[in-house]
Amino acid sequence: MNKLILLGALVYAGAASSGTLDDVRANGVLRCGVNSGLVGFATQDDAGDWQGFDVGLCRAVAASVLGDASAVEFIPTSNKTRFTALLSGQIDLLVRNTTLSASADANLDFPAINYYDGQGFLAPKALGATSAIDLFDKSVCIQASTTSALNLQEYFEKHNIGYTPIPVTSTAEAQEAYLSGRCDVYSSDLSGLAAIRATFETPSDHILLPEIISKEPLGPVVRDDDSEWAGVVRWVLNALIAAEELGVTSANVEELSQGDAKPEINRLLGTEGALGELLGLEADWAVGAIKAGGNYGELFEKNIGEHTPVGLTRGLNAQWINGGLLYSPPFR
Fold this sequence. Notes:
By secondary structure, the chain is an alpha/beta fold.
């Protein structure tokens, strides 16, 4: 199909139906569902301002759509309320350690993956466990109504490990139960376990066991009936990933947006091509996304990287050119 015809068709299709993108613009604010409190990912500081890796993606989307990274209303959600909040229209976007699975994808849309995770175990050093095999007859805190509960059951059944599940409904309840001794071990996504451990008075008294018992691809979630909005969220995240690979940062994006020798940087930043128009955004939408909090690597290192209390290595979340899974489709 001729590129001009394709462009016209896509622009017309976007204008012909009202969806979340139009609603966000009409409201002048992005309502973003986040964790009610997970260090490094989504927490409020002493001034009440939201900070974190997931928060950074919300701000990048707001900057791309509204031209203002601060035009976000952060709405805390739990495992129990997150999908209801999204499907009811209470929030426009969910960015909250949510696993893409076949059942979740049947009724929702996961535009992309922003963190490749896996389920593990947090245990006190004093317990003496060095492996999940040592957890026979132990009690394990697990968040109900999550893939984690099913993964735990299947893993222990497979290895004939008897255990007592202690259901909890939130990260805060899990932390309280674990520290009070109501459960011996807590099992969840490794990123979440590292974040929780960072809040302990003596984090070094607690260890992450070596086993990873599942694949947990985490990503932003939107309603299933709005492909235009899903495309916006997908390409905002792709812009942050591509920016890191191309060396575009919050410090140099303004200069590079004046024009660069590399065609893909020009297309990313809107000085060449019509990608903004195809998405229903301004030409420089990606410039705002990158300025909001930095590229993917900047967001990672600032909030959850090795030099933060959370202390996560890039691992699977390294760029593909560095042996990881992080990969943006071409900007062309």
